[in-house]
Amino acid sequence: QSVLTQPPSVSGAPGQRVTLSCTGSSSNIGARYDIHWYQQLPGTAPKLLIYGNINRPSGVPDRFSGSKSGTSASLAITGLQAEDEADYYCQSYDSSLSGSGVFGGGTKLTVL
Amino acid sequence: QVQLVQSGAEVKKPGASVKVSCKASGYTFTDYYMHWVRQAPGQGLEWMGWINPYSAGTNYAQKFQGRVTMTRDTSISAAYMELSRLRSDDTAVYYCARDTGSSSGAPLYYFDYWGQGTLVTVSS
Prior knowledge:
- The complex is a heterodimer of chains A (112) and B (124).
- Chain A is mainly β.
- Chain A is 0% helix and 44% strand.
- Chain B is built from no helices and 11 strands.
């Protein structure tokens, strides 16, 4: 059971917009700790996609955007492409577990 | 360019220990925290803890307290993660990952560079 909750799967057609959710609690997202997102392609290490809730590292297309409100956060992907098919993980800090990093369980994005 | 290169796959018996290395290059090793994250087959990511390469200070996830030890060797820019009393459910890919936060401050708990992963298989 992950501290951050993500839907197991999401799908969309090429060109569409999809939103991936990440729900936490008052000891992580709700405590104003930042949310970060990673993309993991099969057989590879995760790649940082969004940091500090809304920021994109250099090289990440602006089709990817992040937002946060209350105890939840979202990753939006517009203009869906076949290459976006991957697992996506949200991550934050939790103050209730002697201070620790926490991940969501991950969402598998399928491009139809 | 920043690179984190990990040691090769390991097969261990239950009850044994494993030590995974992560050799950094392309930046000043002692300037950034290093975390360890694992991923069981078909499962999600799990944070294990961090080491401050400058001070050797550590912070471990509660789940692994007493079983994990993170160390570093600054002379060769390497970080190590040792997990003891292995069980079958420790079978996973273990990653090192660099925190973006400076070692002179607090870790930021997000990771801009990752090692390639080390598969540890625990089986009798």
